[in-house]
Structure formats: structure tokens, C-alpha cells
Write a sequence for this structure.
């Protein structure tokens, strides 16, 4: 390379506004991934609020991830208040969370990722599949939650509107509609030839209970990592998930016990060690781009599981009760969401108001890994003689593979 390559681009086709800057010079490279939006800080907004209000406020952090924040907030507050949720209610909440995962994956893959890989005609076909799947899944969510986003049918430990066998059957019917569309889209994604990239930091974290539920019934939580299981609770989560502030961004970054790591669909599949075709397994183990393979696999498997669960629940009498304790204490909610682990922590007063709040999002956890991977990719492409424009196109596609959500990461509001 005769001169340095400097790339500064706003990343398109992601949730929110962010910038990737890459410099390749003298055989080395560095990258920074940052938010371009201003801080809103939901942690401060919920302080002093009644616990019963907080999940509804938290769900407004991000429309794309509204269910995820609602359930993580609910889990943490239920733990702080000593509320124990009944098994069937916990299962229905898990189904709702999984459905937003499917909805997110199909939209991300069909509308945001595939334009990097296919021509216009095929893209039109895949976009129709994604939109059809999205419509059916949202109808199922509306049936179970009372709304497409920002669920209103639930409160801490209880239902606000009845969920009966007929609702479960209707939701299962919508998912059967969606399944064919999801299967076709998944097949198309798994046939893609992804760019080569060796993972610079093959370290990940996912809930080890992910096969059982994406919304555990409370802590302590167990994270699956390449080095074994790590226990997570309200006393130690800050030492396990170490957040740092970056001067160049309004978002934070996070390390797993001092090391960069990634979360999301790829991490979940690696944690479950499920049997997959050899080509896909190799990619998942070594290539950050393969998060898109993982999303495709996960979307279809999740639809199948949700249909099976809803049919089983609709065949018997539901037990939706819960028991309550006394307010005062702290709680941690850890949920698997489309982009990875989502953590909500609250300390609560004796009159059931929030005294302290902390939220750690998947994009915050992925940011270091995005930067390391982008730097490695840019260096490798530059060594092969690719132009600045070509390198920029590849590194943007890499960022999209992680499916970042900037509103969740920085709690932002667009000023107009």
C-alpha cells in the first residue's frame, strides 16, 4: 500500500444513525464505531417512578425492541418485589419475546442484509417474503400482547387482558401462515456466499438456558461462554459485563470480564452446539458475517417452536397466577433478544419506587467486536488491492451483519 486508506461513513440500513471510521496504514488498521445521536438516558428517566410504570417506559427505549425491554424490565422488577410468575404465564411471555425475535430477523435479513448480496429482481422477491412473514408474526403478537409494539396486555406478574385457548389458537394460525415465508427466506440466506473473515476475538456469551426460555424466571442467570459457564446476578453483573465510555461516541462499550466478545444469534447457536451442515458450522465458528446464517436458522426454528408451544398450551387449562412478596430490594433481568443479551437492573424502595436503574444492551456488548472485525477486514482487503470504495462497501456489510440497534445502545432522540 502506497498511502493510507481513510474511511468515514454513516452506516445505512441499520436501526438508528451511526458512523464507522476505518484507517488502514502501514499494514495495520483501526476502526471506531460510534453513535451520531444525542443521549436521552432512560436510567435517569425511571428513577422515582412507581415500579408498575417502569416496564411501559422501558419499552419506549426502542420501537424495534419494545417487547425485549418490557420483559427484561419486568423480570428485574419482579425479582426486586419478590413476585413469582406462574409457569404458564412465563411460557406465554417467552413466546411473545421469541415472536419479536422472528419479526426482527426476517425484516433485517429480507430488507437490510440481502441488498448487499443479491440483484434487484431477487431482492424484490425476498422483500415480499420478509414483509409477508412480518405481517403474520405481528398479527400473532397483537393477539397475545394487545399491541404490535409496546405491549399493554401484561403488568408485573400478571395479565391485564385475558389470554384464553382461542387466542393461543389464533396466534398459532398466524404463525403457520408465516412459516412458509420464513422457510423460503431462510433458505435464500443460507445459500449466500459470505465474505471471508477470520474472527479476531472468538469470544461470546449467551444464556445457557436458551433452549428452555429466552425469558428466564429470574436469577441467578448462567451465561454460556467458550471458557465455560459464568453465573450472573445483581451483585456481580457489573464485574462480568464491564461497561466503558468512549470519548468519540454517545454510546458505551462493554467487555466480558475484560475481553471483547459478541452476542446474538451466532452466539446462541454456538452455545447450544446444535447439529448443522458443515459449511454453516465452520462459518459460525470463525466468521462474524455468519451471524446472518444464524439469524436465518433461528427464525425458522423459533417459529416451529412457538407453534408447538401455543398448541400445547391451548389444549389444557392454563394456570396464569403469580405470588407476590414485599417491595424493597434489587433485581436483575437478563433476556435473550434479537441482537443478544439484554440486561436491566433496578434497586427499589420500600414504597415500590425505582431508586436506581441500569441498562446494558446487546449493541453495547457487540461494539468492541464490531471495531476489531472491521479493522481486520479492512486490512485484509487493502492488502489484496481493493479500492477505498470497495473496502467501505464490505465493512458496512459487516456492521449490518451484527444488526446493531443504536437507539437501544445510546437511548437517543433525533432532534429535528
Amino acid at each position: 500500500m502506497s498511502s493510507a486508506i481513510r474511511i468515514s461513513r454513516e452506516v445505512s440500513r441499520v436501526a438508528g444513525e451511526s458512523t464507522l471510521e476505518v484507517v488502514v496504514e502501514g499494514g495495520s488498521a483501526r476502526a471506531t464505531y460510534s453513535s451520531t445521536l444525542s443521549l436521552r438516558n432512560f436510567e435517569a428517566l425511571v428513577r422515582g417512578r412507581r415500579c408498575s410504570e417502569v416496564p411501559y417506559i422501558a419499552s419506549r427505549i426502542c420501537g424495534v425492541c419494545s417487547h425485549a425491554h418490557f420483559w427484561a424490565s419486568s423480570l428485574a422488577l419482579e425479582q426486586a418485589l419478590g413476585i413469582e410468575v406462574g409457569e404458564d404465564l412465563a411460557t406465554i411471555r417467552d413466546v411473545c419475546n421469541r415472536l419479536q425475535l422472528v419479526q426482527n430477523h426476517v425484516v433485517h435479513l429480507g430488507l437490510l442484509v440481502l441488498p448487499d448480496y443479491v440483484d434487484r429482481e431477487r431482492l424484490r422477491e425476498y422483500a415480499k417474503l420478509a414483509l409477508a412473514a412480518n405481517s403474520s408474526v405481528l398479527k400473532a403478537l397483537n393477539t397475545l400482547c394487545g399491541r404490535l409494539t409496546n405491549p399493554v396486555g401484561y403488568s408485573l406478574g400478571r395479565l391485564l387482558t385475558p389470554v384464553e385457548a382461542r387466542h393461543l389458537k389464533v396466534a398459532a394460525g398466524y404463525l403457520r401462515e408465516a412459516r412458509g415465508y420464513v422457510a423460503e427466506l431462510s433458505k435464500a440466506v443460507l445459500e449466500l456466499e459470505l465474505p471471508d473473515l477470520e474472527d479476531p476475538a472468538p469470544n461470546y456469551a449467551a444464556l445457557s438456558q436458551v433452549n428452555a426460555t429466552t425469558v428466564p424466571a429470574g436469577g441467578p442467570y448462567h451465561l454460556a461462554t467458550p471458557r465455560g459457564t459464568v453465573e450472573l446476578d445483581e451483585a456481580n453483573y457489573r464485574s462480568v459485563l464491564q461497561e466503558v465510555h468512549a470519548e468519540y461516541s454517545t454510546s458505551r462499550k462493554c467487555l466480558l470480564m475484560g475481553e471483547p466478545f459478541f452476542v446474538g444469534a451466532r452466539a446462541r447457536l454456538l452455545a447450544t452446539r446444535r447439529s448443522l451442515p458443515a459449511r454453516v458450522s465452520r462459518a459460525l465458528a470463525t466468521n462474524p458475517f455468519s451471524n446472518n446464517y444464524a439469524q436465518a436458522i433461528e427464525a425458522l426454528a423459533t417459529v416451529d417452536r412457538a407453534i408447538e408451544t401455543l398448541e400445547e398450551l391451548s389444549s389444557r387449562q392454563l394456570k396464569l397466577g403469580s405470588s407476590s412478596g414485599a417491595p424493597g430490594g434489587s433485581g436483575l433481568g437478563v433476556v435473550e433478544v434479537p441482537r443478544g443479551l439484554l440486561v436491566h437492573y433496578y434497586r427499589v424502595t420500600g414504597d415500590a419506587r425505582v431508586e436506581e436503574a441500569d441498562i446494558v444492551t446487546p449493541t453495547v456488548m457487540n461494539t468492541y467486536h464490531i471495531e476489531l472485525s472491521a479493522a481486520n477486514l479492512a486490512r485484509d482487503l487493502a492488502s489484496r488491492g481493493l479500492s477505498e470504495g470497495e473496502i467501505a462497501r464490505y465493512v458496512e456489510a459487516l456492521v449490518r451483519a451484527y444488526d446493531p440497534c443504536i437507539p437501544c445502545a445510546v437511548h437517543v432522540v433525533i432532534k429535528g
Residues 411-416 have pLDDT under 50 and may be disordered. DSSP finds 13 helices and 17 strands in the chain. Residues 5-413 form a domain with the Cytochrome-c3 Hydrogenase; chain B fold (CATH 1.10.645.10). The two ends are 42 Å apart (CA to CA).
